[in-house]
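Methods: example folding runs. The two proteins below were folded one after another, and each record is reproduced exactly as written to the output file, sequence line first and structure-token line second.
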Amino acid sequence: MKDKVQEAGRRLLRDVSRPVARWTAAASATAAARGLATIGFAWLVSGALAGFVLPHPGQSPLSHLLIGLAALALLRALLLALSQRLAARASETARRALFGQLLARIEALGPARLAGRSTGDLVTRLTDGVEALDPYWRRYAPAAALAAAQPVAALVVVAPLDWISAAILAASLPLLMAAMILAGVTAQAAADRQWRTLTRLGGQLLDAIQGLTDIALFNAARREAAAVRRAADAYGRETMGVLRLAFLSSLALEFFATVAIALLAISIGFRLMWGQMDFRIGLFVLMAAPEVYAPIRALGAERHARMEALAAAEGLADLIDARAPTAGARKLTVGAPGTIRFEHVGYSRAGFSLHDVDLEIRAGERVAIVGPSGAGKSTLLALLLGFLAPTSGRILVDGVPLAELDLADWRRRIAYLPQRAHVFDADIADNVAMGRPGDIDAALEAAGLAGVIAALPEGRRTRLAENGKGLSGGEIQRLALARAYLGGGAVIVADEPTAHLDAAVEAALLKRLEAFARGRTLVMVAHRPASLGIADRVIALKDGRIVSDAPAREAVS
């Protein structure tokens, strides 16, 4: 199971990297070019120092060498800046695409299939999870290219000049690679644990913040604070474990590199003393040797960025790979949808089920769905919205199976009113518009909010707090009605929109909803008798079955 999760993370990382392959390749090529310039820089420096210590006739003027050194130093700086810029471009493009893909996936899954995931978990994945991939493209990919190019280039240059030094360098490289791989395998498990702990901590903290009112009411603040503290301490321990492994792996790489350079220096020193080696070549080899190991040591450090990215990708792949209802590409004809028909629809999942639901809702009809908790009312709405797919039977819209329709097009024709609308940390106008064009003033007027908004100092530009703090329940529901009005859907789906309101506020909202529903199809889940007054028919569910289908006047009486 663990291998499958890791493979899913690697697959996601490959898939996301594919569209930005040209930027990553350009950044890697630039990093490799910088490695080659570094070898050239070492050759010129060794020539300048050798000419200064042991001048000989016919050597290049020192001014020429200094000009070459300045040019290569400038080139290395430019290549470094260009590599960083290209890597940043690749990271930004890939993360933006992944974020959009995750949002689209969450929309496709819908609230019914995401009911088992906490809001905090989803937010942590969307924020920290996506951001954790940044170092992979920004640092690891260029470091990998540099580690592949620079040691090979140095060996190719050193081998014709001094094969003994090249043999020492070549023999030591596998030791460094083995130490890096061995440390990486151990550190990957630690990075996976750290990411899981971070996800759990982020979800727990956000859920606690969202539930502060309930926590205070139940006098559970100390208990919740202790739970968050334990999770934070666990994350701290996991982080220190990852850092400990990182430092140990760096120490191992430094140890092998230092031993190899020491052996190389001893060999060169004896051969210089015995007159078996040219001074410039010996100096160049000593200067080039650290450049053979430096990219590998840097790659060893950046491997932790890759491990963190893989751990985050595993968590994101779990969300990307979650099964969503398949959608078609057909669009309804222009105009309001006609008849909606449930043909022997059945659905089963943990604790929720519908059995042989046979129901027809005509265009412009107002239908109330009633029944005890767990009867299948919310499941029926989720099926109608396309968030769940029937396990048997089918749903038809104007004679077209819902499974064949473009769900985005279908949902654009639906105005949705939840039990309690979410209010964002934005002004009133933005909370109503939700990024859509339209007459906001008309929407506020239709929802009965125009007078309330006009009394505010900044009008509709008044900023609202997250979750609507400061607004009454009735005002929040009227805000939801204004959103629905602005969307102008031909089908209204309401999930107990008056469940948390008192009788007077409920009556006012139902009056506005009834006016909005004229000429539209209304499917409303209702618990209170007052809600049935605006319905034409009442459908009663029990244990996932329709037990009654009667005109509203009979149900109310």
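Second run, written to the same file directly after the first:
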Amino acid sequence: MKTEKRNSRQKETLIKVLKYIKPYRFLMALTILMAVVSVVLTLYLPILTGDAVDRIAFIFDPSGLNVDVSAIWAGLFGILRKMGIVILLTAFTQWIMNVCNNRIVYNVIQDIRKKAFQRLEELPLKYLDAHSHGDIVSRVVADVDQFADGLLIGFTQLFTGIVTILGTLGFMLSVNVGITAVVVVITPVSLFVASFIAKKTFSMFKQQSETRGEQTALINEMIGNQKVVQAFNREDETLETFDEINGRLEKCSLRAIFFSSLTNPCTRFVNSLVYTGVGLTGALAVLNRGLSVGQLTCFLSYANQYTKPFNEISGVITELQNALACAARIFELIEEEPQEPDREDAVILSDVKGQVELENVSFSYVPEKNLIENLNLHVKPGQRIAIVGPTGCGKTTIINLLMRFYDVDSGEIAVDGSGIREITRKSLRTSYGMVLQDTWLKRGTIRDNITVGKPDASQEEVIAAAKASHAHSFIKRLPNGYDTVIGEDGGSLSGGQKQLLCITRVMLSLPPMLILDEATSSIDTRTEIKIQKAFAVMMEGRTSFIVAHRLSTIQNADVILVMKDGHIIEQGNHKELLAKNGFYAKLYNSQFAIA
């Protein structure tokens, strides 16, 4: 049952690979043609060699025959010229074939990587949240590289190997049927060896790829969180975890390599049997004058050429097993269900007023654990809505739902009277300016990072936004100012500087609605006071959602929503909520409590 399942999986993967190869069928046809020409020329060479041997035998042992030695020498030089031409043509056809193979493989790999990255852009956030980022990276990078290596070896050796076997049999049959029969009888042994190894190696190489992905995930995680690891003295524990995964990778790699390494010695043993069989039967035929010495030389050469492809194909099959195992993992990613596409009649938000309504909204990340239940909220245009509550109460989840990073399980969220499922994602998200606690900066210049939401912004607009966010002063001190190139995730910039750049990014695009999720958490108190004033100006007339733990920063909000366990338990402005002396009052007063 397991074998049938594995074979079925391999066939499915192979069919998918062939679909990616289909656009390059002209190159494929040219490859096959060059393989045929190359093999025919290669097989013609032993015939010329045999003729040359027979002519040399006549020269040194004419056996009393009245022959023209000078004519034989002239014929011998003619054969040598032919051999030189055949060798040059063979090299040229093999070069053309290799060029075509490389073009096919790297075009296919480019298409697969592009498709995989495109699917990453389309996948819902719940997939990315539920899967290790390191494993995803391993699929797109390492697995595709392994697949490319296997495919390249397959194309280079598989076609020529098959054509060589068929061609050699044809040439041998034309010379001597009996000796050819000996070769054919021994052949199934090689096929049995190749089949046995192929069955064993696929699952092993798949396990190797999965474990490698697990290792990449750990390394990726540790690089990104090395400060935390060192701060909590977790180096030894982390090393133990790495050693455990590395040990498993060593075991499954050794098993895969062991079985794949059986290929060469086993096939060489079969090759020796074939060569021995041809040598013995051929020698007897020469003694009985059924073959000439030149023909025996030709046959021995064919015996080598006939068995060599079996050796190569067995190795190719092992590489293809690895390639197909890696391909299966990348196709799993490509075939993941993408996020629900926008409807064909989806509305494009324009001239946004900022009226937001949540009607009986329920949502949970996992079905068995409820988070938000029957949430109702009506936000008027231009209102400032602060969301507060203990950790895990659903504050950031509401932001995810408003931006449609996740879709609600039931109920509806509407903007300006249109349900967000009926609005294009692009226009919905463009209508929000978002500053999160976790900053994101790409590799590029300071200006590139600020203009993410408005690529056509002028230098004057960029500087004005930076001054409003109080980022201009530190940007000026950088080596090249706004043209300073920063590394991935901000490089050597401080946490506060990164956050200032993210705030500048929003201030530049100035969308009709704002989401500020702990937007000033990494900024010093003095700068925060200045930015809060800038935010107040920016939020004027714009619907704004503010998530904050420091309640002193949201006292001027029009409405404060107090959340607990996914429900709004209190609602009102700062004074009203303090007067109620409820949960909000306790949260607020706890900030000033002396431990």
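Comment on the second run: Residues 119 and 328 are 15 Å apart (CA to CA).
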